């Protein structure tokens, strides 16, 4: 009964609701579907009704208990917390001044960037908000920013909010966050028209990087992955050459494409230390090495390759700063798609199945949809 008007727009907001369904992370492999309080907006804050929320590789690593989230005396994850940073939703309740502050109206479809900047540290103050020293990311620290795997979610005042135009499909809207990360990473590679670019790792974000890199029109776009279906998709998205290192050696192929020099730029998106080593082999002298992955274990490599042998330009890439409007525009223009990338959609109650599938190679991108099984807007 509570769901009868769940997707009603401005006239009938869900403000009357006092509770909501949510996935709550209590600890590694201890995520439960629960009834919790529906959040309330403070001044210059708003509540959105969640349309969908993607399960990120980082959510899988957090669920599995990776040390980067749970390690040390003061773990980065502050449980219990509602997970999820790949969400979008509909404005459902506006706190005092929030409409003007965010530039939104009731019922608008919106997204907030995954980081909630503090607006006080040296990075925030110098426009480098994605490196915010406090670094609150939605879905990991409950005090500031609970996540999007729930029916509703509170958007704090310092969140960076963007409106999503009507023409964008639900699946496309759900990939705006990872697509922004993909755009930032490809921008970091500084792709030139005569570049041979190698993207290693064709997971969901790798496959979005392929689509974005194609738009930059490099001379040759090479994609490396060990899953044949993902390589097939990479080809569909514009890769000129795909390599499965289980079946063939990458170096002779890249060498053959570059007169024996190696690739001009290498984007590392495998999440595996072997992807780093492979990159140092495939890249030419003075090349650009872009690191996007989060690793479960340290990557051990010969650093003399970076200095003495190749004088490489090593660049990190983190989050999707200033790239959300670009992601929204590319999706609106049909230049990037979620088709083939979003493979599974689950209601909140199906969490156990969803995380199992997300954590396997049976899926590419898994979405949690509070209204799954009911009529969608
Ligand atoms: Zn993510
Ligand atoms: Zn900050």
UniProtKB/TrEMBL annotation:
Membrane-traversing stretches: none
Entry coiled-coil feature ranges: none
Domain (Enoyl reductase (ER)): residue spans on this chain: 27-368
Claim: Cell inner membrane is one of the keywords in the record: no
Keyword Oxidoreductase: yes
Source species, domain of life: Bacteria
Gene Ontology molecular function terms on file: oxidoreductase activity, acting on the CH-OH group of donors, NAD or NADP as acceptor; zinc ion binding
Family membership noted in the UniProt record: Belongs to the zinc-containing alcohol dehydrogenase family.
Name of the protein this chain belongs to: L-iditol 2-dehydrogenase
């Amino acid at each position: 009964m509570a769901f009868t008007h769940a997707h009603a727009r401005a006239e009938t907001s869900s403000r009357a609701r006092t509770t909501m369904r949510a996935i709550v992370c209590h600890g590694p492999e201890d995520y439960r579907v629960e009834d919790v309080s529906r959040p309330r907006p403070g001044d210059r804050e708003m509540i959105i009704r969640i349309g969908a929320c993607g399960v990120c590789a980082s959510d899988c690593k957090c669920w599995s208990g990776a040390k980067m989230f749970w390690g040390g005396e003061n773990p980065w994850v502050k449980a219990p917390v509602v997970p999820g940073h790949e969400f979008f939703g509909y404005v459902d309740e506006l706190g005092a001044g929030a409409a003007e502050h965010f530039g939104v109206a009731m019922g608008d479809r919106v997204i907030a960037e995954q980081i909630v900047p503090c607006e006080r540290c040296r990075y925030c103050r110098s426009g480098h908000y994605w490196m915010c020293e406090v670094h609150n990311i939605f879905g990991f620290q409950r005090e500031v920013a609970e996540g999007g795997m729930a029916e509703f979610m509170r958007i704090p005042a310092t969140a960076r909010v963007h409106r999503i135009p009507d023409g964008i499909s639900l699946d496309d809207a759900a990939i705006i966050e990872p697509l922004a990360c993909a755009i930032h990473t490809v921008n970091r590679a500084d792709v030139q028209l005569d570049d041979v670019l190698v993207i290693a790792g064709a997971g969901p974000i790798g496959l979005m990087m392929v689509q974005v890199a194609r738009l930059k029109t490099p001379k040759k776009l090479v994609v490396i992955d060990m899953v044949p279906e993902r390589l097939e998709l990479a080809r569909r998205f514009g890769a000129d050459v795909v390599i499965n290192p289980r079946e063939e050696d990458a170096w002779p192929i890249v060498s053959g494409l570059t007169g024996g020099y190696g690739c001009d730029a290498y984007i590392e998106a495998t999440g595996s230390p072997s992807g780093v080593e492979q990159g140092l082999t495939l890249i030419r002298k003075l090349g650009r090495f872009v690191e996007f992955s989060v690793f479960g274990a340290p990557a051990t490599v010969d650093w003399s390759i970076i200095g003495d042998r190749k004088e490489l330009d090593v660049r990190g890439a983190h989050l999707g700063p200033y790239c959300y409007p670009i992601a929204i525009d590319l999706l609106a223009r049909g230049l990037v798609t979620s088709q083939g990338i979003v493979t599974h959609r689950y209601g909140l109650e199906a969490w156990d199945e969803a995380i199992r599938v997300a954590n396997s190679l049976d899926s590419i991108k898994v979405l949690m949809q509070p209204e799954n099984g009911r009529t969608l807007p």
